[in-house]
C-alpha cells in the first residue's frame, strides 16, 4: 500500500490513507439523516435570470431581498469580456448575457453602472441581442420587446398529429417535449408580461427589435433542410390564424391533458426548471389564478430549486439526489472496503423505493412491451427515468448484495435489468431517456437552433449499461445486448483513442466511461482499442499531474480534446479509466494521485470552480458540486485497494 507523502496541499505529510479518511469523513458529513446525498447543481446565469423574469411576467410582489441576492450572484458571474459565459471563465454567450442584463435591469441596477455598461457594450459589439437563441426570443416576445415574428411558429395542433407524421412529440427528447408543450399554448395565447416596472432592453439591439424576423440558420443545421423547414414555418405562419376553432380547442385540451398527467407534484413537470416555468406562465395566460392547484404546485416546486447562500442566491435547473446518492455510495464502497455494504445500506435503502415500477413513461411509445424498472435523476420524475442513473444504482445494489444478500435488492436489480435490456436502440447503443430517438433531420427545424432536440444513443450511457450488465455476469458471448453494446463502443472510438462524453465534459469523461465498460465486459487490456485509449490519456496529462478539459472541446469543427486547468473530478475520471485498463502502476497514475493528495483542502475536500458536467453540448453546462467530493475519494481509494492486492484488475463495472 502506498503511504507516500506530498510536499504541497493543506496538510503537509498526509498519507494516502489519511487523505482517504479525510475525504470519506467529509463526504459522509454531507449525507442527510435519511441516508441520501444531494448537492447543489449549478448552471449558468440563464436560470436565475429566467427566474427573476418569470416573477415579473406574473406580476408577483417584488421579492426585494431575494432579488438583491440573485443580483449579487449575477454580478459575480459576469465575465471579464463584459458578458456572461456558460461555464466558469468561459467565452461570451449572447443569450446568457441578454437574460442576465435584462434581469439585473429588472431588479433595479442602473444601466449606467460600470458592469451594465460593460455588458451592454459586449452585447452590442457582437451584433446585438438579435443573435439571441430561440428560447430567449420567446421570452422577449412575451415581454413585448420583439414581436412573435421573431420566433418559430409552434401550432398547438402538433398535439393532433398522427404517429407517422414527420414531427410528433415522441420523436423529440423528453426535455424538449416537456418544454415545448406549454410553450405551444403560450404561442397560441401570445400573452404580454405584466412587467409592472415597464422595463425594456431596446438598447441591446442595433435595430428596432420589433423589426426582427426569424432567426438565422444555426451552424449545425443543413442549409437545404433549414430552408425547407423555414418554408414550412412561413406557410404555418400564414395559415395559423385560420386554423379551425374546433381543432384548436381539441389540441389545447390535449396539451393540457398531456401536462396535467405529468405535473409530478412539487417536483414539477419533467422535474426541470424550463417546463415548470413555462407551465406556470401558461396557466397564468389561461386565466387560472395563483391558487389553482396545478399552477400553485408547479410554482412551489420552482421555489424548491432556489439556493440561498446568505449573501447571494441562484436557481438550480433541477436537483440530482438519485445521481448523487448512487455515485457517492460507490465512492464509500471503495473507501470502506469490507464494511462498504454496511456503510452505504441507509443510502441504498433510500434509493430502493424510488425505482419506477408501476408507470410506463413516455419512453414506452417506442418500447411498449417493456416493463418499467428504472430510476430517475431527481427525487420524483416517474414519466422520465433514465438509463444512466438506473445502471449506476444497480451496480451499487449489486455490490452491496454480494457482501450482504438482500432479496429486495435482487428483485429491484432484475426489474432494472429487464428495462435496460429492453431500451437498447437498434444501433446497439443506449440513450439517456428514450429508445431509437434518432430523427436527426428534426435538428434542422427553426426551433432547434440549440441542436439538442433529440436523445440519441451515446458512448457514455452505452458504456454504463454495458458495465451494469457485465457486472451482473453477462459477457459478449452470453449476452447479445452486451455484444452489440461493445461493438457500438468499438465503432465510436475516435482516431486519437478517446471517446466522446455526452453528459460529462468531455473526452476524458467518455473515455473513463468506456474503459470501465470494456474492462467489465472482459475485453483484454492489451486490446488495441484499450491500448490506444491509455496512450491518449497519458498524453493529455497536465504538467501538475492532473487532468482538465475545456468545454470548447464540444466545438462543431471537431478538433479533439481541449486542454484546461486541472480539476479534481476530471483527474479522478482519468485515474479510474487508467486503473480500469489495468494501469495502476503507470507513472501517470502515480502523478495523478499525488495531484489529488496535494490539492486536497484541510477539510478533506477539493475546490473546483470549473464546470465538468454537460447538459447540452455548446448550449448548457452544469457544475455538479458533488463531483469534487466523491470522485477524487473514489479514485484514491481504488488506487489503495488495487495496490494492496495481488490482482490489479478492477472487478466491478465502475
Shape: globular
Give me the side-by-side strand order of the main sheet: 1-7-6
Number of helices: 22
* Largest β sheet strand count, sense and barrel closure: 3 strands, antiparallel
% residues in beta strands: under 5%
Spatial gap, N to C terminus? 21 Å
* Helical residue percent band: 40-55%
Spell the H/E element sequence: HEHHHHHHHHHHEEHHHHHHHHEEHHEEH
Q: What's the rounded overall pLDDT mean?
A: 94
Q: Tell me the number of strands.
A: 7
Q: What structural class is derived from the secondary structure elements?
A: mainly alpha
What is Rg?
25 Å
Which regions have little confidence, pLDDT < 50, spanning 5+ residues? 1-12
Report on this model:
With 654 residues, the chain is mainly alpha-helical. Helix content is 46%, strand content 4%. α18 (507-520) runs parallel beside α20. The model is unreliable at 1-12 (pLDDT under 50). Residues 319-641 form the Squalene cyclase C-terminal domain. Pfam families: SQHop_cyclase_C, SQHop_cyclase_N. Residues 20-309 form the Squalene cyclase N-terminal domain.
Topology of this structure?
Elements: H1 16-28, E1 41-42, H2 46-58, H3 64-76, H4 94-107, H5 114-125, H6 134-142, H7 174-189, H8 223-239, H9 245-261, H10 273-285, H11 293-303, E2 306-308, E3 313-315, H12 321-336, H13 340-351, H14 387-403, H15 407-422, H16 459-471, H17 480-492, H18 507-520, H19 528-539, E4 547-549, E5 563-567, H20 568-580, H21 587-599, E6 613-616, E7 620-624, H22 627-643
Helix pairs in contact: 1-12, 1-22, 2-4, 2-10, 3-4, 4-5, 7-9, 7-10, 10-11, 12-13, 12-14, 12-22, 13-14, 14-15, 14-16, 16-17, 16-18, 18-20, 20-21, 20-22
Amino acid at each position: 500500500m502506498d503511504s507516500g507523502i506530498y510536499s504541497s496541499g493543506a496538510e503537509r505529510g498526509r498519507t494516502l490513507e489519511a487523505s482517504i479518511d479525510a475525504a470519506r469523513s467529509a463526504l459522509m458529513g454531507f449525507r442527510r439523516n435519511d441516508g441520501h446525498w444531494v448537492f447543489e447543481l449549478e448552471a449558468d446565469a440563464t436560470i436565475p435570470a429566467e427566474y427573476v423574469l418569470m416573477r415579473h411576467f406574473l406580476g408577483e410582489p417584488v421579492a426585494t431581498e431575494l432579488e438583491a441576492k440573485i443580483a449579487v450572484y449575477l454580478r459575480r458571474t459576469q465575465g471579464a469580456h463584459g458578458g456572461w459565459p456558460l461555464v466558469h471563465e468561459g467565452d461570451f454567450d449572447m443569450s446568457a448575457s441578454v437574460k442576465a442584463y435584462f434581469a439585473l435591469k429588472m431588479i433595479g441596477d442602473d444601466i449606467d453602472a460600470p458592469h451594465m455598461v460593460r455588458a451592454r457594450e459586449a452585447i452590442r459589439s457582437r451584433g446585438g441581442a438579435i443573435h439571441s437563441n430561440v428560447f430567449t426570443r420567446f421570452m422577449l416576445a412575451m415581454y413585448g420587446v420583439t414581436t412573435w415574428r421573431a420566433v418559430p411558429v409552434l401550432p398547438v395542433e402538433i398535439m393532433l398529429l398522427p404517429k407517422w407524421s414527420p414531427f410528433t412529440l415522441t420523436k423529440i427528447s423528453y426535455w424538449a417535449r416537456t418544454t415545448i408543450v406549454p410553450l405551444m399554448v403560450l404561442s397560441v395565447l401570445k400573452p404580454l408580461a405584466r412587467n409592472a416596472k415597464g422595463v425594456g432592453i431596446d438598447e441591446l439591439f442595433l435595430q428596432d427589435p420589433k423589426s426582427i424576423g426569424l432567426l438565422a440558420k444555426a451552424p449545425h443545421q443543413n442549409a437545404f433542410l433549414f430552408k425547407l423547414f423555414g418554408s414550412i414555418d412561413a406557410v404555418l405562419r400564414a395559415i395559423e390564424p385560420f386554423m379551425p376553432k374546433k381543432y384548436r380547442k381539441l389540441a389545447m385540451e390535449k396539451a393540457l391533458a398531456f401536462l396535467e398527467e405529468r405535473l409530478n407534484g412539487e417536483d414539477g413537470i419533467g422535474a426541470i426548471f424550463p417546463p415548470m416555468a413555462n407551465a406556470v406562465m401558461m396557466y397564468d395566460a389561461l386565466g387560472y389564478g395563483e391558487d389553482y392547484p396545478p399552477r400553485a404546485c408547479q410554482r412551489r416546486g420552482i421555489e424548491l430549486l432556489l439556493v440561498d447562500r446568505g449573501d447571494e442566491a441562484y436557481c438550480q435547473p433541477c436537483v440530482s439526489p438519485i445521481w448523487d446518492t448512487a455515485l457517492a455510495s460507490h465512492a464509500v464502497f471503495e473507501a470502506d472496503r469490507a464494511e462498504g455494504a454496511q456503510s452505504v445500506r441507509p443510502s441504498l435503502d433510500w434509493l430502493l423505493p424510488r425505482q419506477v415500477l408501476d408507470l410506463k413513461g413516455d419512453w414506452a411509445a417506442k418500447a411498449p412491451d417493456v416493463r418499467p424498472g428504472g430510476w430517475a435523476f431527481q427525487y420524483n420524475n416517474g414519466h422520465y427515468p433514465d438509463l444512466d442513473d438506473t445502471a449506476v444504482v444497480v451496480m451499487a445494489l449489486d455490490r452491496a448484495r454480494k457482501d450482504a444478500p438482500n432479496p429486495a435488492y435482487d428483485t429491484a436489480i432484475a426489474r432494472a435489468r429487464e428495462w435496460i435490456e429492453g431500451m437498447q436502440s437498434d444501433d446497439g447503443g443506449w440513450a439517456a431517456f428514450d429508445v431509437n430517438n434518432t430523427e436527426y433531420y428534426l435538428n434542422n427545424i427553426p426551433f432547434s437552433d440549440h441542436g439538442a432536440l433529440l436523445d440519441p444513443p451515446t458512448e457514455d450511457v452505452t458504456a454504463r449499461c454495458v458495465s451494469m450488465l457485465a457486472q451482473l455476469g453477462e459477457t459478449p458471448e452470453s449476452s447479445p445486448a452486451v455484444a452489440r453494446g461493445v461493438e457500438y463502443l468499438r465503432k465510436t472510438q475516435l482516431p486519437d483513442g478517446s471517446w466522446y462524453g455526452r453528459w460529462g465534459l468531455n473526452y476524458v469523461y467518455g473515455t473513463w466511461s468506456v474503459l470501465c465498460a470494456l474492462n467489465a465486459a472482459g475485453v483484454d487490456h492489451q486490446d488495441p482499442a484499450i491500448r490506444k485509449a491509455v496512450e491518449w490519456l497519458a498524453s493529455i496529462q497536465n504538467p501538475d499531474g492532473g487532468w482538465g478539459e475545456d468545454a470548447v472541446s464540444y466545438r462543431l469543427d471537431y478538433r479533439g480534446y481541449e486542454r484546461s486547468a486541472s480539476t479534481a473530478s476530471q483527474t479522478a475520471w482519468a485515474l479510474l479509466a487508467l486503473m480500469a485498463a489495468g494501469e495502476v502502476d503507470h507513472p501517470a497514475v502515480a502523478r495523478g494521485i499525488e495531484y489529488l493528495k496535494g490539492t486536497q483542502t484541510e477539510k478533506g475536500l477539493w475546490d473546483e470552480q470549473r464546470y465538468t458536467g454537460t447538459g447540452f453540448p455548446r448550449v448548457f453546462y452544469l457544475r455538479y458540486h458533488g463531483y469534487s467530493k466523491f470522485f477524487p475519494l473514489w479514485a484514491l481509494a481504488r488506487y489503495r485497494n488495487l495496490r494492496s492486492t495481488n490482482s490489479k484488475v478492477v472487478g466491478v463495472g465502475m
